[in-house]
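help with these C-alpha cells:
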Amino acid sequence: MFWYNGKFINSQTLELDIYDPGLLYGATVFTTLRVYGGSLDSSLTNWLAHCDRLHTSIQSFAWEQPDWNRVRQGAELLITKFPVLRITIFPDGREWIIGRHLPQNLSQMQKHGVACTLAQPELYRSLPSHKTGNYLSAWMAKTNAAKSNSQEAILVNNAGNWLETTTGNLWGWQNGRWWTPPLTEGILPGIGRSQLIDWLQTQQQVVTEAWTSEIVKGFEAIAYTNSVVEVIPIHTVHQHGESLQYDPYHSNLHKLRQLFLA
C-alpha cells in the first residue's frame, strides 16, 4: 500500500508514463523519516525539517511545489501502518509516499556495530547537497561492499577523504570531541546530523573538519547516523588492503545515542 498523487493505493506496483523524468533520469527528490510516538509532530520525528528539505530542493531546481496538505494527509494515513516513511516529490509536484518497517537487525547493529568498505572515488553522489532519486552510485557502492561481507560503504573524494556512508553521515570521537565532515566536502546535510550538531554545540563537543587519511587513524570510535537508524557504530573499515579497527562499545557512542531520547 502507498499514497500517490492524492490517492491511497493498495498495490505493490505504481503506474508511470514511460517518458516520466522520474523514471528515466531519477528526477525526484525525497526524504526518509522515522515516526516517533506515532506522531508527525513529535520533536524527534522532525516533520517540518523533512518538509523544509524537500521544499528547499524543489525551489532550487525550480520545480513545482506539491500540495503540502495532501502530503501531510498521505503521511498521516500511512503512519498507522508503518514507522518509517519515504516521501518522494516529482518535478511536476506529484507526491509519492511509501512506508516500511525498521530493519529487523537494527538493535543488533546499534549494539555491536557494522563493517564498512571504502568505495571507489568515482562512486560519488550526484548533487550531494540534495537528496535526489539518482542514488545509483550509492547503491552500487553498498552492493559492492556486501560482496566483501561489509554492511555499509564509505564514499570518498579524489583526495581520499572520507565523506559519508551510502545512507548516513559520519561521526568520529577523538580528543574529547565528536568530529564530522563539513558540508563543503560535498556531503548530504542530513537531518539527523543537524540535530546532533545542535545538541553537541551546546556542549562544545563538535568539530567539522575534513576526514583525511591521517585524521581517521586517530579516532577511538566512529559511527554513522541517519533519521531512521539513529546511531550505528562502525567497528571495521576495509581500505586498500588493510583494515582500521574502532571500538563499537565506546562509552561516548552510548551518550550519542541518548541524544535521540531527548
Remarks:
- The two ends are 32 Å apart (CA to CA).
- The chain has two domains: 2-100, 106-261.
- The chain has a mean pLDDT of 95.
- Residues 255 and 261 are 10 Å apart (CA to CA).
